[in-house]
Amino acid sequence: MSLRVGVAGVGVMGAHHARNLATAISGAQLTAIADANAERAAAFAQEYKGTKVHADPRSLIDDRGIDAVVIATPEETHAELVLACLKAGKPVLCEKPLAANVDACLKVVAAEVALGRRLVQIGFMRRFDPGYQTMKKAIVDKRYGAPLLFHCAHRNAHAAAFLSRDEMLIRSAAVHEIDISRWLFNDEMARATVLAPPPSGKDGLRDPQMLVLQTVRGVVIDVEIFLNAQFGSEVNAELVCSSGTVSLAAPVDAVLRHEGHNGPVVPQQWMPRFETAYLVELQAWVRSVERGEPSREAASAWDGYAASATADFCVASLTGGSPVTITLEKRPEFYA
Ligand SMILES: NC(=O)c1ccc[n+]([C@@H]2O[C@H](COP(=O)([O-])OP(=O)(O)OC[C@H]3O[C@@H](n4cnc5c(N)ncnc54)[C@H](O)[C@@H]3O)[C@@H](O)[C@H]2O)c1
Fold first, then answer.
1. CA of 288: how far to CAs of 118, 178, 281, 282, 313, in Å?
2. What number does the ligand 1 atom closest to the CA of 160 have?
3. Whose CA is nearest to atom 29 of ligand 1?
4. Atom of ligand 1 nearest to the CA of 15
5. Residue located nearest, by CA, to atom 35 of ligand 1
6. In testing the pocket of ligand 1, which one of 7, 35, 76, 169 has its CB within 8 Å of the most ligand atoms?
7. φ, ψ for residue 193 (rounded to 5)?
8. 245 CA from centroid of ligand 1 (Å)
């Protein structure tokens, strides 16, 4: 029987996952949704007939007709809902971040360790992107020697309205680069410096920002976060090793010749860049639930904690104007 999945929150990200479950993922079926916006939930259920609608994610999690849950509600609801999934013994794919603050992340980690079963996956989908996977393989195979530097740029055309505070560029956007760096180098960040030019955007937002991080083993990482870059959305990364480099190649839909310009079109939206990664992530999660063991690539609750805690140190550097040393809690053996 295919896995009966409930999706909590059918806004931008949740609707995307729910549509993928309904149309593209094998071994699973979209069974129910819940959203605080009743009109949005009803419109979605109208599009995907037979989908049960719950008024509240807690009743979706407790629904005996649901085997596993995707959480895509706003971050301040995540910890409570993930804890409810653990209590119900249901596997959960929770969108990043794991929780709105580090204490809440650690509460989830403690609850999962106490349960003794790995039920939580965090939606850090870049780990499933073919470009980053090629980088990871090059590092693991030592194909171009030792990794030394990692240059990243994360630009959106226009920031979503909720990204209105300086720290959110780090906690909501750069957290993807933090997670992918931890995963690529199988290492934690040891120190960080975050700088920003004087505010140039609307409402005094410090955008762009530049993060410089160094891992415990010494790889140096720079990350430009620019969420109102105007011209379009792109994610660039170049890995520099001792005898070669690996760069992400942006997927190209079409090449345009127009008014003196000849080249690829820069996407205006952020979501299409990781279309494949979102699909592979969801499929890997479904397969891992079938097998009863976590996907090797996927981010665990511990990874969710480590990414959020590292992001908090970066925020401290931005607000304090000086470099910071990063220290994390000791990783439980359970996540080894
Ligand atoms: N992995 C990624 O690339 C990525 C990209 C975008 C967003 N996200 C994450 O996905 C999550 C959702 O972001 P979004 O952009 O889809 O937001 P959104 O505002 O578009 O959607 C959130 C939905 O949750 C509903 N909701 C709010 N509070 C609720 C509650 N208490 N109970 C039930 N429903 C509730 C809202 O009505 C809305 O439909 C966030 O954690 C965000 O960080 C991840």
1. 10, 24, 10, 10, 32
2. 15
3. 36
4. 16
5. 36
6. 35
7. -130, 130
8. 36
As for ligand 1, residues whose beta carbon falls within 6 Å of it are 8-14, 34-37, 40, 57, 72-75, 77, 95-96, 123, 125, 172
Paired tokens of 219: 């790889």
Strands 209-215 and 220-226 come out as: antiparallel
How many angstroms separate the alpha carbon of residue 7 from the centre of ligand 1?
A: 11
Q: Give the gyration radius of the chain's Cα atoms.
A: 20
Q: Alpha helix locations (H) across 256-321?
A: 275-291, 301-320
Among 32-41, 79-88, 114-123, 155-164, the minimum mean pLDDT is found in: 155-164
Spatial separation of the C-alpha atoms in residues 61 and 90, rounded to whole Å: 8
Is 177 or 266 the better-scoring residue by pLDDT?
177
CA of 169 to the centre of ligand 1 (A): 16
Distance, CA of 110 to CA of 189 (rounded, Å) = 22
Q: What is the structure's pLDDT at 201?
A: 64
Q: What percent of the chain has pLDDT over 90?
A: 91
Rounded to whole angstroms, how far apart are CA atoms 171 and 179? 11
Listed residue (180, 318, 314, 164) closest to 228, CA to CA: 164
3-class SS of residue 156: coil
Exposed / middle / buried, residue 230 (Cβ in 10 Å: 0-12, 13-18, 19+) = exposed
Measured in Å, residue 74 CA sits from the centre of ligand 1 at 4
Q: Do the Cβ atoms of 84 and 61 come closer than 8 Å?
A: yes
Q: What is the mean pLDDT of residues 19-41?
A: 97
Question: pTM of the predicted model, to two decimals?
Answer: 0.97
Q: Cβ neighbours of residue 327 under 8 Å, at least 6 residues apart?
A: none
Q: What is the average per-residue pLDDT within 233-238?
A: 96
Element (H, E) at 16: helix 12-23
Work out the average pLDDT over 280-303. Answer: 96
